[in-house]
Structure formats: structure tokens, C-alpha cells
């Protein structure tokens, strides 16, 4: 379909902008689902909007997970760090 070809053509720009990957299956799904459920716009615009929203959400989720990981690292007590260091030292001795 023409909309799929157009989205494949602009995929690189959206991947660079959102710092994520869009598979061919994701592009096909965006075209199919937007054609089926978004009535107030036309293809390929509504599929592009759907892909843009998905990329934005993926980037925000990755950012949130990274922040949670950083927060959990910083919230450990010194004793927990020493336990990890001792565990690594024990593994190196074996």
C-alpha cells in the first residue's frame, strides 16, 4: 500500500528523532489501525501521527525506566554496597 511505502521512506527520520526503532510490522500495524479507528483524518497522515505518538511514548518509557534505575541505585544503604563488593570479591577468589 502507498501509506506503508511512505512511512518506510520517513522511518529513518522518526527513528532518529525518537531514538527508537520502528519495525515493518509496527508500520503495517500503524497503517491498518489508523485506517480502521481514526476517522477524522486521511492516510498517510493519521498513520504518521500514530507512529509519532508511539515513538514518543517509547522514548518517555525508556527515560522513566532509566530514572527509576538511577534512583534505586542511589537509594541503597552503604551496607548494601559493601555486601555487593564482598560478593564480587568472593566470586573473583573462586
UniProtKB/TrEMBL annotation:
Q: Which GO terms describe its molecular function?
A: ATP binding; ATP hydrolysis activity
Q: Name one Pfam family in it.
A: AAA_lid_9
Q: Which residues form the ClpA/ClpB AAA lid domain?
A: 1-70
- Alphabetical list of InterPro entries matching this protein: ClpA/ClpB_AAA_lid, ClpA_ClpB, P-loop_NTPase
Q: Which UniProt keywords are given for this protein, alphabetically ordered?
A: ATP-binding, Nucleotide-binding
UniProt key word Cell inner membrane? no
**What Gene3D superfamilies would the database entry show?**
P-loop containing nucleotide triphosphate hydrolases (3.40.50.300)
A biological-process GO annotation? cellular response to heat
PANTHER family referenced in this protein's UniProt entry, alphabetically: ATP-DEPENDENT CLP PROTEASE (PTHR11638), ATP-DEPENDENT CLP PROTEASE ATP-BINDING SUBUNIT (PTHR11638:SF185)
UniProt key word Repeat: no
> Domain of life here?
Eukaryota
Q: Which organism is it from?
A: Nymphaea colorata (pocket water lily)
Write out the transmembrane intervals.
Answer: none
Under which name does UniProt file this protein?
A: ClpA/ClpB AAA lid domain-containing protein
Species lineage: Eukaryota, Viridiplantae, Streptophyta, Embryophyta, Tracheophyta
Alphabetical GO CC annotations of the entry are:
cytoplasm
Amino acid at each position: 500500500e502507498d501509506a506503508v511505502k511512505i512511512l518506510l521512506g520517513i522511518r529513518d527520520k522518526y527513528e532518529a528523532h525518537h531514538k527508537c526503532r520502528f519495525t515493518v510490522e509496527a508500520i503495517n500495524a500503524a497503517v491498518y489501525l489508523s485506517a480502521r479507528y481514526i476517522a477524522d483524518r486521511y492516510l498517510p497522515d493519521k498513520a504518521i501521527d500514530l507512529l509519532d505518538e508511539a515513538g514518543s511514548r517509547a522514548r518517555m518509557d525508556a527515560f522513566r525506566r532509566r530514572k527509576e534505575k538511577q534512583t534505586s541505585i542511589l537509594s541503597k544503604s552503604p551496607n548494601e554496597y559493601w555486601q555487593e563488593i564482598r560478593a564480587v570479591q568472593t566470586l573473583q577468589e573462586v
